[in-house]
Amino acid sequence: MRISFLIHNAYAIGGTITTTFNLARALADRHDVEIISVLRSRERPSLALDPRVRLRPLVDLRREKDDPRHRTPAKVFPSSEYRYSEYSALTDERIGEALASLDADVVVGTRPGLNVHLALHAPARSVRVGQEHLTLDHHPPRLRKALRRAYPRLDAITPVTEADSAVYRRKMRLPGVRVQALPNSVPAPALAPSDGRGRIVVAAGRLAPVKRFDLLIDAFAAVAAAHPDWQLRIYGRGEERERLRALIDRLGLYNNVFLMGAVTPMEAEWVKGSIAAVTSDLESFGMAIVEAMSCGLPVVSTDCAYGPGEIITDEEDGRLVPAGDRDALAGALLDLVGDDELRRRMGRNALVNSRRYGPAHVVVRAEQLFEELLAARRAGRTVTGTGSTLTSSGFAARDTMLVAAGNVARAVRRARR
Fold first, then answer.
1. What are phi and psi of 9, to 5 degrees?
2. Chain-centroid distance, C-alpha 222
3. Fewer CB within 10 Å: C terminus or N terminus of the chain?
């Protein structure tokens, strides 16, 4: 198969970039794979990309950021999307041209706004798959409304969890669109796993309010009081840094809690620790959880909606505690800190259980999905997956109907003006 991924900026750092590179690398063993990056911000990607995977940027910000078209607001990319301020008439134009000329069997969007572009402009011969790395309930109402208009023109939507897939099936009207969970993948680390001896709790992520590192620092005060030789190391950067630094100082934890900055890759830091902590109020998946487990660390995590509860088996390879509960979080950490055998046993289980998120396992699911959708489109067989069906010969009729409906809606709006 010829497979193309459409991504926001392959030259930056982030979970979507990491998992897209991982999946592209695994698919490249048997397929022709390309990544189309809407934006380019530097000479080479920050993350290592398999040389077999082609990378094609569309707008080079180093030379084109002052282009008048890039100062004109985008019209295709939805204004309610989180990255809207980075899109423009120039990105609309370049994405449209790239999709129109695409010779791919499968084209995969990696964020809501790009999935809208896919729905409107990807060639009819290509299977159109919209990945969702956030969650439907996390999207603002205006964005959900825009997606309801566009997503029926996709062939499949792939949330990263079964829980979010269920929400899509329940709340979105998507006749003929297959909804199937496709988790993020994490390759096996090149380093030996943690031996569980390091007296370090490790956390990583954006220093943003939703990650609740303030809760983690507050809970760790109880650990430091009972076990002053233990440390908490928090990796990442973001707008919360100064507030977290002030909290550390106020609690007198400056000898126990350290803000380490951003480090890529993280595996060398995970293996120095014995426990990982994730304290988010919201996770769409939990890449940090899988990364830590693959390094042999049990993970203490808040049981927020979607990701953690599908990855961690409570009391087997980690602990799940109620979101926002400082005392429960402190108690779970203290249980593992104070019991060497429990900590090491859970770490061994975490290492084994994390393998289901290896690229080899995830790529099998992706290949099967792509092949079934492509065969249905080519042969006219029925596409199933959400309880509704649509033959491949019906895709063109569906698209024509949706375009006509959009034209009518625009005419009504013009008449009202």
1. -150, 100
2. 32
3. C
CATH number for the region 2-185+360-416 comes to 3.40.50.2000
Domain ranges of the chain: 2-185+360-416, 200-356
State the fold for domain 200-356. Rossmann fold (3.40.50)
The per-residue pLDDT for range 299-324, each reduced to its tens digit, is: 999 999 888 999 999 999 999 999 99
Query: In sequence order, what are the residues at sequence separation of 6 or more whose Cβ sits closer than 8 angstroms to the Cβ of residue 209?
Result: 240
Residue 35 sits at the vertex; the CA angle it makes with 88 and 56, to the nearest 5 degrees, is 65
CB distance 295 to 267 below 8 Å: yes
| Planar angle of CA 61, 26, 266, nearest 5 degrees | 65
Q: Are 317 and 346 in contact (CB under 8 A)?
A: yes
Q: Which of 196, 108, 211 is nearest to 156 (CA)?
A: 108
Sole residue written with tokens 């825009």:
146
Q: Tell me what the mean pLDDT of segment 383-390 comes to.
A: 40
Distant-in-sequence, close-in-space partners of 410: CB < 8 Å, separation ≥ 6:
none
> Is the per-residue pLDDT at 398 higher than 80?
no
Please state, as a whole number, how many other Cβ atoms lie within 10 Å of the Cβ of residue 267: 20
> Same CATH fold, 200-356 and 2-185+360-416?
yes
Residue 112's DSSP bridge partners are: none
Alpha carbons within 13 angstroms on the beta-carbon side of residue 227 total: 19
CB distance 294 to 186 below 8 Å: yes
Burial 274-308 (b: 16+ CB within 10 A, else e): bbbbbbbebbbbbbbbbbbbbbbbbbbbbbbbbbb
Query: Is the separation of the CB atoms in 343 and 298 below 8 Å?
Result: yes
Amino acid at 74: A
* Lookup: tokens for 251: 């609690």
Residue 273's closest CA among 301, 295, 300? 295
Averaged confidence pLDDT in the chain: 90
Cβ–Cβ < 8 Å for 385, 178:
yes
